[in-house]
Amino acid sequence: MPPEPIPINRVISRPYGKLKFLCDESRRRAGRLVTFAAVADALNVTPGLVSQMFGFPQEHAGHAVKTETLEKIAAAFGADGVRCDFDWFYLEYEGFAAHVAGSQGGGAPSGDLPSGDWELRETTVLADLVELRLHPPRPGNEAPDSYLVDATLLFGTAVCDYDPEEGEEPRSISIALHNARSAIGSDGYRPLQNSMIGERIQSENFDRVAGGIEIKGPAPSSTLEGNPIGDQHLAVIAGTNAGEDAFAVTVAAHRRSFVVADVDKPYSVCDGDVSSDNKNVILNHFIYRRCGRDEAGRALLAQATMKRPHGEPK
């Protein structure tokens, strides 16, 4: 009796980027598979399972995905108007993007592909408090050398183990935010007029303010928790002749924006229950000694930048 075939379970490089590219293609064609949640619904699986296979944490190391699953994804996008053969997933990202884009209506010039040659960098003070990442930008049609900027921005409550001085007992404390401020742009790239997320759409999560965007939601318990951007792009940017600085997005907060509480004591995370002096000591320990400040003295909690390699024409 012949042995049963062994399922192909090869590692897929840059799984997040590839699935996101398919979702972006669907969005361009007014399809419905524009989010990972929509893909999960089409596959009749939970969004968590799609995130497990194609989430951003797998982007650098890659992830092994069953061929059967890839075939189902390719079929779902094919029915949605975006052709994708399952074996294209095994290509490197640039080859995958070229195959997908080139199969839509007879081909696309390489300049219309998402740029995979941008240098992306990010830093954060407390990953559980703020996660900020930029993704390779998509060419825009609004102006020459314009790009749609996609970002991941997540807020949460950081729980930290704190070892006080002067004989106090070690304990766990939580740090959260009532609100935050985001600044977008650089001398090299600037957002186009009315293109930032706080300008082009009305949202209870954002207010456009002088110098940036005030982030005030989602805040289910009076502190920021979750994804304020959703499926929207962050901004449309265009190159300038003023400089070659990397395009940058920052998230900052004033001292009054922080909520600090003892995890082991009953408390309302909205109010916190540590003394003002104790709060300052804790914030100095976990936040201020680790971060820079913006021009208003806010703590720079996270920064993400993207830049083309030196010498490449814009």
DSSP summary, beta strand count: 17
Radius of gyration: 22 Å
Number of domains: 2
Which structural class fits the helix and strand makeup?
A: alpha+beta
Q: Residue share in helices? A: 10-25%
Distance between the termini: 61 Å
Topology as a string of helices (H) and strands (E): EHHHEHHEEEEEEEEEHEEEEEHE
What is the overall shape?
Answer: globular
- Beta percentage is 25-35%
Q: Which whole number gives the mean pLDDT? A: 81
Q: Return residue spans where pLDDT drops below 50 for at least 5 consecutive residues.
A: 1-8, 105-116
The order of strands across the largest sheet is 3-17-15-10-13-12
Main sheet makeup: 6 strands, antiparallel
General description of the model:
- This protein has 314 residues and is α+β, with helices and mostly antiparallel strands.
- It has two domains: 11-112, 434 Repressor (Amino-terminal Domain) (Orthogonal Bundle); 119-307, no CATH class.
- It is 22% helix and 25% strand.
- It contains seven helices and 17 strands.
- It has helices at residues 15-28, 36-43, 47-54, 67-79, 93-102, 197-200, 276-288; strands at 11-12, 63-64, 119-124, 130-134, 138-139, 146-149, 151-155, 158-162, 171-177, 180-184, 189-191, 206-209, 212-215, 235-239, 247-253, 258-262, 299-307.
- A six-stranded antiparallel beta sheet has the order 3-17-15-10-13-12. A four-stranded antiparallel beta sheet has the order 5-6-14-11, with no helix packed on it.
